[in-house]
C-alpha cells in the first residue's frame, strides 16, 4: 500500500467525529494491506510507531527537503526506513540519522511529510483510539468485535491480533489465552464525582485506597518472574523489592496487579516524580534501592497455580489474593454499602497523602484493557486560575483552530509568568471557536505553529497534581491538566501565583 493512501485514510478518520464512520474507513484500509504491512499500518493509524522510539526529535525534523512531486513511498518502505534509523548507533549516529531522515522525507509528498512529522513526534491525534481500531480489525476480518477485543486483552498487542485476525480468522483468535509471562493491558477505572455518586452506581462495594504510584503487573512461573508497567514495558531488573516479595509467596504460578511507590520515613507517599524516577532509572539496583526504596501493594489477582481468574467476580479474585499475600502487600480495602463508612475510608486515604479511593464492584470480572464501569475512582479535584501565554495550531479535526494552550502562573516578584505545561483537553468546539478568535486578537507573534499572545486571558484548569519537571523554567509541571472554563471575570493580575503552585508541589 502507498503511504499516501494510508495518510488519506488518517485524514478522513480525523475529519469525522462519528465512530462508525471511523471504523469503516479504517477497516477499508486494513483490507488492502499486504500481510507484512499490517503491523506498521495498524501502528501508524493508531498514532504510534511500530518501533515505539527511534531516537528522532523535533530538532531533526525542523528542516527537511522539499516534498516529492508524486507519491511513491509504500508502508513497507517507511517501516524499513524507520527500522534502519532506529538501529543507527555509535559515533556519528546523530548525523547519520538526520541524513536518513532527509532521504525518507525527500521521497515523501507534502501530505506524507506532515503525517510523518506528527507520527514521529507522537502528535498524530486522529481519533483512532485503541477501541476504534479494534472494532475496525473486527470489521475488516468479518469477526465479532467481542472476540477481537478479548484476544487483544489476552495478547496485549493489537497489532499482533490484527495480523492473526486478518490471516486466520476465528480459529487464530481462539489460540490467544492468558499466558503467565505475557502482560495484559490493565483494567482501568472510570471517574465518579464523589463517594456518594460512586456507591449509587456500585453497591455494596470494595472501597480501596488509590495510591499515587506506578502500576505494575507481576508474572511468576516457578523460578521465572517478570514485572511489567502499565505500558507493558518490562522493568524486572529495576524493582528487586517486588521480585523478592513475589518470590516469597506460597504459589508456583501467579499474575498479580498492583502499585509500587516510594514512601517517606512517616509512611507517607513521596512525590510521584520520585517513584517515577526510581522505576525509570537504570543502574545498580542495590544502589538505587538504597537511595529510594519502594513499597509494593497488590489489589488484584488474575491467575493462580494454573487457574485463570479473569472472568471470576472481583470478590473471588481478592479472596484468592488474600490467600497468597500477607496484609502488608495488599492495598487497604473496606467492603461496605454505607456512604458514611466509604467517605471515612476516602478521608483516611487523603489524610495519608494518597490520591483518593477506587470503589469496586464485588461482582465484575477483570475487564483487561478497558475503563470498566465496575471500578470508579474518586479523587479531590485541584484547580488553578492560570494565564494563557501562547496557543498552538490544531490539526486533524481541529485544523483551522487554535488548540493547545500554554499555561502560566503569575510571578508576583518579577511581574511575569512561569509556564507550567500545556493542554488541549476539555476544549469543546464552542470553546475552540471562541479562543481561536480571541487569541488571534491578542497575538504578538506567530511562527506558523505557535501563536504567542498577550498574557491577558485567565482559564480555570483542573489537574491531578504537580510534578517536578526540567522542561519548564519553574521546575514544575501540572499532571493531567484540563480546561474547565475561561474566567472572563478575572484579570491576569488575579491569577494564581507560582508560590501557590509550589506549595502544592511540596505538599
Task: Looking at this protein, list some descriptive labels.
single chain, 507 residues, alpha+beta, 7-stranded antiparallel beta sheet, 5-stranded mixed beta sheet, globular
Notes on the structure:
Strands 11, 12, 13, 14, 15, 16 and 19 form a 7-stranded antiparallel beta sheet that branches. Strands 1-10-9-2-8 form a 5-stranded mixed beta sheet, covered by helices on one side. The chain has a 5-stranded antiparallel beta sheet with strand order 4-3-5-6-7. Helices cover 38% and strands 24% of the residues. The termini are far apart. The mean pLDDT is 90. The protein has 18 helices and 19 strands. It has helices spanning 3-15, 19-31, 38-45, 58-61, 75-87, 93-106, 110-120, 130-141, 145-155, 158-173, 195-201, 240-247, 272-280, 285-291, 314-324, 339-351, 429-442, 498-506, and strands at 188-191, 205-210, 214-221, 224-229, 253-261, 295-304, 307-308, 333-336, 356-361, 371-378, 382-393, 402-411, 416-423, 443-446, 450-453, 458-463, 465-468, 476-479, 482-486. It is an alpha+beta fold and 507 residues long. The longest helix is centred in the N-terminal third of the chain and has 16 residues, at 158-173.
